[in-house]
Amino acid sequence: MADLYYVEDDLNIALDVKEYLEQKNFKVTICPTLSKAKQQLKEHVPTCVLLDWNMPDGHGDGLCRWIRGNWKDLPVIFLTVRGDSPDIVSGFRNGADDYVVKPFELEVLYARILAVLRRTGNIAEQYLSCDGIRIDQNRHAVFCNLEEISLSTAEYQLLLYLMQNKGKTVTRDKILERVWDVNGNYVADNTLTVTMKRLRDKLSQPACLKTIRSVGYRMEDTI
């Protein structure tokens, strides 16, 4: 199921769009302000963002630029009333993937979303996230609250494996096998303990990275 953030302060419009798109197998999260949208994006990267131009706390182009600075290829579609169209065209040229003028037919909006996703693919699949920690798998980059963190190869592979299994407890033996043994690097059990300690320190002791005593570790969202 593709998930979508809808940044819209008119609750009636937002609920109509949400109901329609969820019938089309989208998961829709409504963000009534730009600041709420930023908070949601820090926690999880969706498949697409629908972004109303006029919001209570600013214009959508500012959020669009912020998105482009953090997730270059994340699809963004502006929604606007007709009088805003010149500004929207400017915003479209500066980062959005498409725009739709209000009032719009729900079928038209749905078709435009599908067209954008056909062009871009599911960009969200390249990102893994848990609380404020995010991995960009294409760039092999790790971010903690949007700040890039430098990790060793072993630390990165350990975090990646835990993120790929988010919500599941993985045993120490399985981690040793997948992070080290699969590459022919047979190490002592203490190597995992030391690597985990360094990883936790670099990520500022995240609450989402849990030790399951005598078994292994688990990553799970806490916020």
Q: Which sequence of strands runs across the widest sheet?
A: 2-1-3-6-7
Poorly predicted segments: none
CATH superfamily of the largest domain: Response regulator
The gyration radius over C-alpha positions equals 20 Å
CATH A-level architecture of the largest domain: 3-Layer(aba) Sandwich
First and last CA, distance: 22 Å
Sheet with the most strands, sense and barrel status: 5 strands, parallel
Task: Walk me through what this model shows.
- The structure is a single chain.
- The protein is of the alpha/beta class.
- It folds into 2 domains: 120 residues, Rossmann fold (3-Layer(aba) Sandwich), CATH 3.40.50; 93 residues, Winged helix-like DNA-binding domain superfamily/Winged helix DNA-binding domain (Arc Repressor Mutant, subunit A), CATH 1.10.10.10.
- It has a 5-stranded parallel beta sheet, sandwiched between helices.
- Helix 6 crosses helix 7 and helix 6 crosses helix 8.
- 30% of the residues are buried.
